[in-house]
Design brief:
InterPro entries: BEACH_dom (IPR000409), BEACH_dom_sf (IPR036372), BEACH_Domain (IPR050865), PH-BEACH_dom (IPR023362), PH-like_dom_sf (IPR011993). It comes from Piaya cayana. It holds the Pfam family Beach. By secondary structure, this protein is of the alpha+beta class. Among the domains are: about 60 residues, no CATH class; about 100 residues, Pleckstrin-homology domain (PH domain)/Phosphotyrosine-binding domain (PTB) (PH-domain like, Roll). It contains 7 helices and 11 strands. The chain has a 7-stranded antiparallel β-sheet with strand order 8-5-4-3-11-10-9.
Length: about 300
């Protein structure tokens, strides 16, 4: 009857809300347990590592991997312990045709994405005038002790060679923040999760990038050789890029909406190479960086 439905409707809504709340609490508890467990393992390794308080007399075999730290020539020369070493037995079985069921090859990208990848014009890889702030070349530097203010906050993805990490980027007048939004945070070189906080004054370069053939990403380079590849939703990338340019970081090299061709000309790299001020390797690495090549995305 209609009157019974009216009476039971608030009860059903309340029950649904309670079920959602209970599921969220269980998920939060599981995430907290996972994070605490990883932190505990990290502490155990710290206290039982060589020359530590409780060093293990029979330490396990240490596996190594290439660190993400780079030199100015974009060379990676440092090795760090691989705490999550994987022998990739499933991949080996697939390679040797030992698996019972082979996965179907990935489907090709849709035609629409292929059309987005067309690069017939220079304007494809630069911003329109309406996307850029009015930059005053005579702008006075901001005082260091002024109150930090949020400039832009957007959902995004941190692209690494091993994972795509959902999260949120926040740019303030003094810092660049990324908050890892993964349900289960991985153990990384810097601790638990991919969160980072970088001073805006350390930002060296910001390049427009593509991800999955779409013009939706940015790559940030800092003076300490750290770099991050961030993918945004459609039309959000230009907004974030414009806001960063508007803040005029003091150590940023390139300003404006130059295309890769214009960036190469403005950088003077070719002239430096001709005059032997830089090596062949340095020239090619900088050339690839300007062209869009990156260590952070295996497809590029």
């Amino acid at each position: 009857l209609p009157w019974q439905e009216l009476v039971l409707e608030p009860v059903a809504k309340r029950a649904k809300a309670e079920n959602v709340r209970h599921a969220n609490v269980l998920k939060q508890a599981a995430n907290h347990h996972s994070t605490v467990l990883k932190q505990w393992r990290s502490l155990c390794r710290l206290l039982t590592s060589p020359r530590s308080a409780w060093a293990d007399r029979n330490p396990p075999e240490v596996r190594w991997k290439l660190s993400s730290a780079e030199t100015y020539s974009r060379m990676r020369l440092k090795l760090v312990p691989n705490l999550n070493f994987d022998q990739h037995l499933e991949a080996s079985a697939l390679r040797d045709n030992l698996a019972e069921h082979l996965h179907n090859p990935a489907e090709s990208l849709p035609l629409a994405m292929a059309k987005e990848a067309k690069v017939s014009e220079l304007e494809d890889d630069q911003l329109a005038e309406e996307d850029l702030p009015v930059l005053d070349n005579q702008a006075e530097p901001k005082e260091q002790n002024q109150r930090e203010k949020l400039v832009v906050s957007e959902d995004c993805e941190l692209i690494t060679t091993v994972a795509v990490v959902p999260g949120r980027l926040e740019v303030t007048t003094q810092h660049v923040y990324f908050y890892d939004g993964s349900s289960e945070k991985d153990e990384t070189e810097g601790g638990i999760g991919y969160d980072f906080k970088r001073p805006l004054s350390h930002l060296r370069e910001v390049h427009l990038r593509r991800y999955n053939l779409r013009r939706s990403a940015l790559e940030l380079f800092f003076i300490d050789q750290a770099n991050y590849f961030l993918n945004f939703k459609k039309k959000v990338r230009n907004k974030v890029y414009s806001c960063i340019l508007g803040l005029r970081p003091p150590n940023q090299i390139y300003f404006g909406s130059r295309s890769p061709q214009e960036l190469l000309k403005a950088s003077g790299l070719t002239q430096k190479w001709v005059l032997r001020e830089i090596s062949n390797f340095e020239y090619l690495m900088q050339l690839n960086t300007i062209a869009g090549r990156t260590y952070n995305d295996l497809s590029q």
